[in-house]
Amino acid sequence: MADNNKFKTIIVFDCRGLEPVEFSPRNGWKVLGWKESEDDDEPGSVSGTEFSDVDLTEMEWADYDERSNESTVISEIEVKFVTVK
pLDDT tens, 61-73? Predict the structure, then answer.
């Protein structure tokens, strides 16, 4: 993906004077499989495989996407809190 390894907004909290310091993703996530392009200059695309109820409690997850014939992996999860107004 073109935005692989870049931070993405996944949730916004209304903290009202509190400052969050940690986020634990746990379970219940949905992951879409990805098919890499054969041409390095072209972006890949969603494979059509949906993995549901993904558990990120261990801060990593892996499965095999049979449609793309590739492993699907989430690892090295980092969390960054940013103030929004």
Answer: 999 999 999 999 9
